[in-house]
Amino acid sequence: MNMALVITIVLSLGVIFVNGWTDAPNAIATAVSTRVLRPNVAIGMAVVMNFLGVLVMTYFNAQVAETISNIVSFDTAGGFHVAHVAQIALAAALFSIVVWTVAAWYFGIPTSESHALIAGLTGAAMALGGLHAVNGQEWVKVLIGLVVSTLMGFIGGFIITKLIVWLFRGTSRRKANKVFTIGQAVAAGANAFLHGAQDGQKFMGVFMLGLYYNNLVEKSGNGFTIPLWVMALCSLTMGIGTSVGGMKIIKSVGMDMVKLDKYQGFSADLTAAICLFLSSVFGIPVSTTHTKTTAIMGVGASRRFSSVDWRIVKEMIYAWILTFPGCGLIAYVMVKVLLVIL
To answer: Which partner for 153 in 42, 102, 256, 294 could form a disulfide, CB atoms 3.0-4.6 Å apart?
Structure first.
């Protein structure tokens, strides 16, 4: 096994670990903020459900991983050896993701690692072959996911909250809270499972690209047949990353942006779970962070728009907007520098 492949695999697992550490807490943020689950219990549940989400969903439906693995091509290598340059490009893309996401975690901003991954891969590919290295057809799915997750998250959170208020209008608060305590715990587990299903598959797509450019796997049809050991390794790595925790992100998403009651936390979790499940089934790579935070915004707005701390929302939107050019530029520059050095 050559050193470039080792570096790519280590960086891939590093990014999966960081994703479990900084991104997975979004799935359980509302359940912690509404005191349905204690932080240590919620994180423990997220570890298990993230692990199962990566493993189970990939086994039955790996379309998200296929989309990511086909979004760019590193075959436009010019006078260089394709495999060598591809490894450099992948390493640069993964490095840009680690830098960007750790910085976001430090400042407590739940930026999207899914968008960072797509931006990093795109920037690295463009450093080799310009726009010709980008698969526009697959990139359209990313844009669709961006729009769908925003609209479904916000509108879904708004409508489901209004519906729940209407359905439980004659129920005592104490009885309703018992229902929503159980419901939110289940919905938070579903969010953690689907976080693994979405984000785990995205990074597995990159992992498989590293193996492919070293002739260790072959493409069949539109994508790869992902071996069970890859699923298990990526699942375990994400689970370990999640166990590290992420109270900064939990605080930003579940506590600072809007104050939630139990029924509102349930509404946000249910909305996000529905959106993530449908996106995973249809192979559309969406941001789990984007989906969850827009669902929380919709829930808060259903009460009154002033319930949402739009200052926090504005910071998140800036982070999302900057992710594509920021991460892409880091990857682009890194490819150019590494090609000179190596």
So the answer is: 294
**Cα Rg of the chain, angstroms:** 20
SS3 string, the chain, reads CCHHHHHHHHHHHHHHHHHHHHCCHHHHHHHHHCCCCCHHHHHHHHHHHHHHHHHHHHHHCCHHHHHHHHCECCCCCCCCCHHHHHHHHHHHHHHHHHHHHHHHHHCCCCCCHHHHHHHHHHHHHHHHHHHHHECHHHHHHHHHHHHHHHHHHHHHHHHHHHHHHHHCCCCCHHHHHHHHHHHHHHHHHHHHHHHHHHHHHHHHHHHHHHHHCCCCCCEECCEECCCHHHHHHHHHHHHHHHHCCCHHHHHHHHHHCCCCCHHHHHHHHHHHHHHHHHHHHCCCCCCHHHHHHHHHHHHHHHHCHHHCCHHHHHHHHHHHHHHHHHHHHHHHHHHHHHHHHC
Q: What is the pLDDT of residues 165-220, one digit of tens each?
A: 999 988 888 888 889 999 989 998 998 898 888 887 887 888 888 787 777 777 76
Q: Does residue 323 contact residue 111 with C-beta atoms inside 8 Å?
A: yes
Distance CA 325, CA 37 (A): 37
**Distance from C-alpha of 87 to C-alpha of 110, rounded to nearest angstrom:** 29
Give the number of domains in the chain: 1
Tell me which residue range forms the domain holding 281: 3-341
Question: Do residues 41 and 243 lie in contact, with contact meaning Cβ atoms separated by under 8 Å?
Answer: no
Give the Cα separation of 242 and 289 in Å (integer).
15
**Cβ-based neighbour number of residue 242 at 10 Å:** 31
Rounded to the nearest 10°, the torsion over CA 334, 338, 339, 342 is -170
Structure tokens at 75: 């075959």
Greater confidence (126 vs 303) lies with: 126
**CB atoms closer than 10 angstroms to residue 238:** 32
Structure tokens at 264: 């509102």
18 and 98 Cβ atoms separated by less than 8 Å: yes
Distance CA 312, CA 252 (A): 8
